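Sample pair:
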Amino acid sequence: MTRLLALLVAMAGLIGAAEARSLDAIRSLGQIGLCAHPNSLPFASKAGDPPGFQVEMGQALARELGVSLRLDWIITMYQLRAAGCDIVMDVIADPEAVGETRLKTTRPYYHTGVALAVPAASPLTSFAGLDRTTKVGVQVGSVAAMLISQRRVPTSTFGFEIDSLDALANHEIDAAAVTPANAAYYNQTHPDKAVRLIAASDAEPNLNWNVAIGMVRPDDALREAMEAALARLRADGTVARIYGRYGVVLQAPK
């Protein structure tokens, strides 16, 4: 799980007391609020160059609803209550996770998870190939860190996935457990250090998930409008183009 996904899952536990706006209220105000991390490319960036695919998706959805996008920048979980946003992007579309976050979600629109990033010449071809001779970079507190350690594979812990990818490029580790989006953007921005991705097997459900748009207590009209807007953006290729600008090729939900 990326730092942004982990942040949103944690933050959303505080959503219960928040009052979300209805579709009519959003249209009356002329804006919809998106919560995003200000420094988490390729997901989002307050600097705005590039803005991140979450911001671009928010802008596209806002246009479909006939309103503007308001960005609510959040760094810590305690800021969510004051932010009052309406949507969050790239939410794990899992019944248990949704139950904990109290978010309502659209239908999933892509599939992702945790993959192993390895140098192009690495002999590794699967997670099963990890052993006591392979050191893997993992994000602190992540599910991947726990699962890989349980296999008695040596790990090196990092605060952010980009740090583990840099360590991989510097030959400090043999592989890095990261999300495909972070690896794809790393390859786009570091073509001389491009990594090869090894997807987790479907037999590893904790390392695979579908992704949807999260809505903070939407009314039925907002939920239906978001579903319809997302369907149109997928059908005309907008979603694929937005993610593609960051090197990300979306996989169909499973």
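Confidence is low (pLDDT under 50) at residues 3-18.
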